[in-house]
Amino acid sequence: MVVWFTLGHGRHVGGRERSDALVNEWLVAALALLAGLVPCGVVCLRGEPTERLVGLSMAGTIDALVLLLLAVGYRRGIYLDLALALALLTFAGGLVFARFLERWG
Amino acid sequence: MTPREVVATALLVFGVGVELACCLGVLVMRGVYDKLHYTSPATTIGAVAIAAAVVLRESVVTYGLKAMLVALALLITNPVMSHAIARAARIRRHGAWTAQEKDAEDETVEVEVDRR
Considering CB atoms only, which of A51, A71, A95 is closest to B35? Predict the structure, then answer.
């Protein structure tokens, strides 16, 4: 991991961005965050419906941050829109789910 | 490494750690209300720390602004989401509470009857 970090830190050379490092710290962080999706998935699979919805909401948060870190890690600023869209759509979807569980479900 | 990079990396590690701890908390806790508590640090402390790391480390115009926007979106939407889920859980368990106003006798009363 130390090797990866030092690789990632060598990006700014001569005023130009060097992206030849395979892994930088953003991608490592994204990978670590992806591990957090496993507990969220387990929560989504058991318990009451509202408990599962909590797991879904948490997974949406993690996903948005993973997309954020991946966009920065791959040096594609335009992909940050994905993270923003996912954060807002998770919110809308969660509200619809909550409303549904409140009345029917 | 400049001090700025050290701080950014520390913030990144801290933010990821908070997120993972929150995921474990959601998994371990019993009951929807206890689980719901653990979604809040993930969207406040964790998301803001990660966005701050991006702002400190990368160019603000390309990445920083959008990162702050994502953190802000999470920061604003999560309390509403928590409220909606807690409200849904309470209504599912206890039925809808009856409104005090007389003109508010809408479908909430029917929901309560349906629960029994």
Answer: A51
Q: Is the ipTM of this complex over 0.85?
A: no
Residue with tokens 């949406």: A60
CA B78/CA B58 separation, integer angstroms: 26
3 state SS of A16: strand
Farthest-apart Cα atoms in chain B, separation: 67
Angle at B44 between CA B93 and CA A23, to 5 degrees: 120
A51 touches chain B (CB under 8 A): yes
Contact list, A33 vs chain B (CB under 8 Å): 16, 19-20
Q: What is the pTM of this model?
A: 0.81
**CA atoms of B31 and B18, how far apart (whole Å):** 21
CA pair distance A66, B50, nearest whole angstrom: 10
